[in-house]
């Protein structure tokens, strides 16, 4: 690609190779108060998981302390956390979600 500078000279511009955006995991954290049914609902509604997948993730949260709800770009992950946290508070649940960078390959 070329362009002219202010003095009429032609400049050659290099194309920079674009990189894929870094991905982030959205993790659901276990607590002793949020009902399992609500966690399944959140996974189905906000993370588009099937009922079976949602049940498996909910059980991982319950038994292991956390579970991966999904992997997204940073903005999408933060939006999911905000949406689910707002819904949980609205329903009176202390459900916590966090994001963490996906390990680089």
From TrEMBL:
This is ATP-dependent Clp protease adapter protein ClpS. Keywords: Hydrolase, Protease. Involved in the modulation of the specificity of the ClpAP-mediated ATP-dependent protein degradation. One of its GO terms (molecular function) is peptidase activity. It comes from the Bacteria. It comes from Deinococcus hopiensis KR-140. Residues 20-97 form the Adaptor protein ClpS core domain. The keyword NAD does not apply. One of its GO terms (biological process) is protein catabolic process. HAMAP family: ClpS. Belongs to the ClpS family. InterPro entries: ClpS, ClpS_core, Ribosomal_bL12_C/ClpS-like. Binds to the N-terminal domain of the chaperone ClpA. The lineage of its organism: Bacteria, Thermotogati, Deinococcota, Deinococci, Deinococcales.
């Amino acid at each position: 690609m070329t362009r002219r500078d202010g003095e009429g000279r032609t400049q050659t511009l290099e194309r920079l190779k674009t990189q894929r955006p870094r991905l982030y995991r959205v993790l659901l954290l276990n607590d002793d108060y949020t009902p399992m049914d609500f966690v399944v609902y959140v996974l189905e509604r906000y993370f588009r998981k099937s009922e079976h997948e949602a049940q498996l993730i909910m059980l991982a949260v319950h038994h292991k302390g956390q579970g991966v709800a999904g992997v997204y770009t940073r903005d999408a992950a933060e939006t999911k956390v905000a949406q689910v946290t707002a819904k949980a508070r609205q329903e009176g649940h202390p459900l916590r979600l966090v994001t963490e960078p996906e390990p680089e390959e």
